[in-house]
Structures
1.
Amino acid sequence: MTSGNVIVQTHGLTKQYGKTTALDHVDLTIPSGSIYGLVGNNGAGKTTLLKILLGQVYATSGEFSLWEAREEVSWRKNRRRCGAIIEEPGFYPNMTAAQNLEYYRIQRGIPGRDKVSEKLKQVGLADAANKKFKQMSLGMKQRLGLALALLGEPQFLLLDEPINGLDPAGIIEMRSLLLRLNREKHITILISSHNLPELENMATDYGFLSRGKVVQQIGARQLHEQCGTYLEIRVTEPERYVALLERELHLTNYKVLPDGTVHISEQTQDVAPYGRLAVEQGIDLLALERREMQLEDYYMHLIAEQEGGEQ
């Protein structure tokens, strides 16, 4: 991937708050034109990463580029090409949607009085322009936050949990809007979220974070190939069992989780040999199930493998 096709690249990016390490030598790449799903539990370091990219906090060590810029002066210039929702935007409760946006338009020196109505229309709030912020539903407030992020015509959107707290209808609306912005306006979008089923409907690329570390980066196509059907096997002697899998069945596409559960990427519909192998060798077979791996399962397996490796 050439540098011209990359919006963000980090190398060894680390952030410490006292003795707490929020980001731990993070290396990741966000391709231009992508919808990049930044996946992680609360405390994984997602928000800290977004804040560093936006200049709200400074990294302790490491480096990053924003459209190839690697120093503060150029970062400031390129951040004008960014729009963001991090935590709850500071809207005034007694001002209307239009008044709130107009306030920020003037404050940021964004030209064009028609920008406010244009952005309200773009996020589906044209009919709510005169509604006070405090009277808006959570979904409307989220869309108003997105309108604010879009006010400066950004090329890169950074969204921290944009669908958090939305009802199913609000989630669908937000998803449709983000997909449209990406496809029609060619806006690169970084979405930090722990709502994995919804990310599956949008993301083209993924970065999995755990305890401040990047566990894996993977494209959506590769991920879907790995999130297929698998066998879950639990036996009394997992180490001896996988040795037998390799020797007797010549199988290598398996994983052993820290709890001893064996996962086999299924290549055949016939599961009988796996059970028979255990029984014939005097190993108790506790469970043998065919499962369909979802994104949440995939993430949990990654985390389990990492934690197993650190022990």
Note: The first helix runs from residue 46 to 54.
2.
Amino acid sequence: MGMKRRAGARNGAQNLKAERDGRSVAEARMESIITELREAVASRDDFLSIAAHELRTPLGTLNLQVKALARALDLPSPKAQEAELRTRIAMVTRQLARLERLVGELLDVSRIRKGKLVLDREPVDMLVVVRDVVERYADEIARSGASLIIDAEDAEDHVIGQWDASCIDQIVTNLLTNALRYGGRSPVRISVRRQGETARLMVKDEGIGIAPDQKARVFAQFGRVAASTHKGGLGLGLWIVKKIVEAHGGSIDVVSDLGAGATFTVEMPVTPPT
């Protein structure tokens, strides 16, 4: 009888310990979930603040330019009117393009998060896309003070793959604007190569670079290359690039060090992965 009581006591103690251990694990898990939720809410609030600022800036500029356009109509000389109107219209066009990019990024995030990123694959020449993007951003490149070099093995050796043309344009655009934003007027080099069944796109700048402890943030949603310095943008461009590249079965990486510039490398199969 005594042995049964002792065995029962041992079993009771073991059950109590197991219950306490289970409760401790559950509490630790709950604390972890609460911490993650708090971080998510903080990230959301930071993003909303940044988005509001980024959208307000071009809207404010547009408001000022429209008022300047109205004043230009009162200039006495038709020639002076034309010159002033051309200047103001050019500034309005740039701000509208900036707004379009910001709204486009927000729409891209929505599609990606909902799993609605659909690729319309067709033969796309990556080198042609690079040249088109560079031509489209010629004014912005000039204003940045950076020189730009397109490095291809041969002008006729184009890199063609089965990709979504608009997505390839977006990849090149985001990497180029990122290099201009953080390049600090340094030269920007864009390289296009094909190695076997893989296309490789490299965008290199010699700007502020990325600290080792910041590299993990580069491709994160709402991440920024330089958290301590406001360089504009929503912090979504590189995250969107990563998602688009992965949707094509490819990968993206960055090699950088603080003060030594950054090289972003995109590798994608030229044919859809099976």
Note: The chain has a mean pLDDT of 79.
